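Morning!

As promised:
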Amino acid sequence: MYQILNTLYVMTPNSYVHLENNTLRIDVEREKKLQVPLHHLGTVVCFGNVMISPAIMHRCADEGINFVLLDGNGRFKARLESAVSGNILLRQAQYRKAVDVQFTLAIAKAVIAGKLRNCRQVLLRGAREAADVSDQQGLSETAKSLANSIRNLSVASDLDSVRGIEGDAAKNYFSALPYLVRRDIRPFFTMNGRSRRPPRDRFNALLSFLYSMLMNDCRSAIESVGLDPQLGFLHSVRPGRAALALDLMEEFRSILADRLALTLINRGQVTERDLQEREGGAVYLEDSARKIVVTAYQERKQEEITHPLLDSKVPFGLLPQLQARFLSRTIRGEMDDYIPFLVR
Amino acid sequence: MDVAEIDDPIMLSALQHYSYCPRQCALIHIEQAFDENVHTMRGNAVHERVDEPGLGSFEGVRTEYALPVWSEKLGLIGKCDVVEFYPDGRIYPVEYKHGKKRAKAHDDIQLAAQAICLEEMTGKAVMHGAIYHHSSRRRREVAITTSLRQQVEETVKAVRALLASGKLPPPVNDARCKECSLKEICQPEALTNKARQRKMHVELFELDQ
């Protein structure tokens, strides 16, 4: 029985989130907008200017409900952490393994292999479905180059070469993504490689927003299995950076975020009017688009997919949890190798 | 004093977990990998049992719910779901379990440990207790025999050694797993299938084209 608890995203400015009996209640302008039983909630994510009562924060801490604050653009600000001690032995092992060069390299290679394989699947699937021959060609050629990168990865002998291979492969992948956008709307969703901080085109703005939600889920997963999110294997330590959550996120980027962005664009659920360019070139999502994207992301998390190692169907939303658990098993030496989640 | 003698007390529930499956015990008490479901279920169950009619309605029987108990001698600490104090001086612990009436050694060990705690606390002998099975609403009386008391002492030693080692015993991957609430955390099938793991890891860098 796999149960995936809901994430509640509070996006309306000036919402007041508070506790009423055993429910979380949201008022806007003193009017009740929503009331949810606490036991349905796994996470509460508040965007921007949302008011929160101390009582609801205490209760969420007691119940182990994650409480996350993001700024209006979806960038991580803070999280409410309760006194869960986590697993100190696991963390000790994590700290030891992080200075073990061979182990670090093996994890980095597995994580990037997972990422590139899943990216490649997105391109291959696009190539199969592409009506236009030149699109098809562009996609299969890039898929081929990713296959080469994966082969090179298997013989990479240090972290720098892994990062180099990943960098080149990502550049190729992002240059091919526009082939997956419907031809008639392609001009509005052009993409000149990946740009962030701030994103400089509509496609990138959409990706950044999705990645920040995915990042939150990966960080929660890492923390809930008792690992330290700040100490990664591929991503190096930097204050304020959840390096291990970034490591875990790699294998999910294309399947949970990129593919969803493409679907939203191609189905016309998100249009060029939903993403506005600011003076100077930064692009952000309008409120309308945020709601659409968040809802689509939540729905995506409920969809089921076969997990190859578990050999059973699990919801997409549970993948970060499951993989974080396997990562912790690898760190504790219960599994010899980390095996990323691969889509077929 | 030897450092080993001032170890933290062991939770009564750890004895039951250990005798059911040593890995389950390690997951809960070493890894602290508490399944939310277990927590929630426990909470709900306690409320249900407090609401259960008929309890404590015997004349002269005083019933204590969620009574803290301990043993300095064995280094145990925990709570009894229910302890009945009879007018004739008998003390009778009752442990509540989900599921149908069924004899389970690990439940008996937990009950016996409670009895040992109650004896040390009150100075009175506790010769019997019961397991109450919630689904079938039946009590199964358990005699606190010498051999059961011995099993408690052995289990305490084993749990202490396990906690001191800080190691996770491998998954058992047998019939026990089906009923285990920590199955999703433990992942017995995936973890014991080393051949599959190796194959998948090799295939990770191999491409069919």
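The domain at 6-80 of chain A is CATH 3.100.10.20 (Ribosomal Protein L15; Chain: K; domain 2).

Hope this helps with the figure draft.
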